[in-house]
């Protein structure tokens, strides 16, 4: 790791790290569970105070269930927009935690607690980086930092897209630093430059008002058959979606995207082993595996339920059933268009009576230009801080509300952060590796300093 | 209703009816739940005593979980084999009963109790008919009556087929009177001359050892999609089964079968309304409806379960799932052959890894020659007793262990009895209409008398 040219080394970062650990413990203690509306205003207020203490001006806006904070500080030719969230997932099942979820607890080089990774550890490490950068710079931030912090991310960010569209001009910047990122088991930082879109749907079929004896199956259609036929008609055995027009708007990867994918270390075998996965579609690995994960949309069946499910048999013809599915979308697919295509597809299959229910607000896909200097700067700084070449994924396989930042404000976005492959985000014993938290502060410091000089 | 030529009229049947009501109450009080192994030996003993009291010699054989009784009485050129069972379904959910399930209780012209229709009321009405026939005949039965009564019918008759095959010669007769039958809402007796076969299966698919995040759906197959594809590949939208060879052994209905079906009063609209059925496959009604129900095999999906099933969405790729299905078979399809065809079909679809589990012993289909004098006699007597033309269904749409009686012993079989369309068999408040019970005794008396003179 090279520290040349930086006034602060890891050693003299120590006071900032110590302060950040205290701040993080304080924030984890606030039970800001958005799904249950717990302590959202209190947490927003505390976050606001922390930002104000570093010289930020903070404006609070009303979201659907929690305040949206927009903070601003610093001056310089460059502007960085940071996106984080202060809400967390519910802590249940509480009995599976080895320490109280709302007490930041150190064990074996890690810190445990709800939200310690997602997203309070990310926020606090960046706040500590701002503090260190100011200290190094005579109390001034050498770039403008705009900070958008919401409290509804864990319930699907219902207010965010509208907010970003309405405030696009105030949020203008040179790039956006996304709320997460991770370090792989080999200690390599992974940086994402996009997120897939998602639509979550329920399909429902009903053939009668009450369950029937299955002997009537000779004359009465079966709702579980109808749903099976719907699902089977929507993709093929190779995983390709067979809805007419589904791929029309898929953006081809750029040469830089493909180059990035060629450089991703192949974790497919390790993932396969970790989860006991019997095999990958098409037997892919390496480059082909990541091309599918990053550039290909897909259809998942999340759940299928109807009729008898206990031991043995029951000769019932169920009245109804439902399937829950998600589509993962890639640029430039549009959720609205895919919904229209799906309805037309089912109608074309003679399945007009299958009801489509939207389960939550969908996310548009978004992918930055990986050749953008903002993306390349993040990659270079991360490689220097971690002493290993950073891995650039043009998009995560997951989804999130990144689209308005890229499309409405027009920003390049990078996701770089302090998560690890065993962070247990959304699960009991959520954790971060303390060394990653410290590296995260160092990355933030150097990334902002480098950006200020771009 | 014509009573000419019969020594006993409904009026002087009264003492036999009174005795039968007492016998039935006594038998209902015995909690012979085969699924739970309750009171099976006690009930078998009491049934045996009742038969012996009417002059039957009774042999008891060991079934898998309950004794099989074979009784014999009477002399004459004709022999009737009667099949009944003394076991009942569990009484749960107990809270939905309006009177104690094991106390025969009269309300509004009906008798309520577990097994009062299925099958204790059937057995007792026939025993009362034997008593009346003997009384009319100077204490002698003018035909030989063989009575096979098992205690495992409600758990799929696991011992019966083997027993009938092994005892085929002792069970020889001119025809077999099956354990059930019913009276329709218009008061017309319905007589069945066959039963469909059945195979109950579970299909299982598994893609990994633990659930995955659904973003991996781009590279990992989905067990619920695989099962959907399996189901969708096994039939088409019209209800036709699309497994190669599935229809090869289907026996065409005879001219007499078709004539019988043309005479079935069309209850399809009433059934549709009663259950709120949205429509029938192919829009059938009348003759076409009954041809499908009686002569066509079919595939039913009884249940489909896997993955997330609660409110909202969960972006999970489930590790596994299962589907429960039944095939209803018609003569001369064989369950063993259909199982082979299904395995070959799934393999041919590239679904070799879908596991097929047999859920219980299957039933072979069976259908009698409806032109047989034994069948025609039952039809004629039932029409006389009920004062309305009896309805002949060449087969029930349901299933049961009739096959060895027709195929191994070579008997014509008729199912004629005292059930009604609201008997709530297997459900709380199981009941019979008292007038049907009395008609059942009269039918038995006249049917046996007529058979003795054939």
From TrEMBL, chains A, B:
Where is the Peptidase M20 dimerisation domain positioned along the sequence? 194-350
Which GO MF terms are attached to this record? metal ion binding; peptidase activity; succinyl-diaminopimelate desuccinylase activity
Task: Tell me the keywords, alphabetical order.
Answer: Hydrolase, Metal-binding, Protease
Q: Which SUPFAM superfamilies match?
A: Zn-dependent exopeptidases
Tell me if Repeat is a UniProt keyword of this record: no
Which GO cellular component terms are attached?
Answer: cytosol
GO BP annotations, alphabetical order = lysine biosynthetic process via diaminopimelate; proteolysis
On whether Membrane is a keyword of this UniProt record, the answer is no
Fetch the Pfam families from UniProt: M20_dimer (PF07687), Peptidase_M20 (PF01546)
Protein name listed in UniProt: Peptidase M20
Species annotation: Deinococcus cellulosilyticus (strain DSM 18568 / NBRC 106333 / KACC 11606 / 5516J-15)
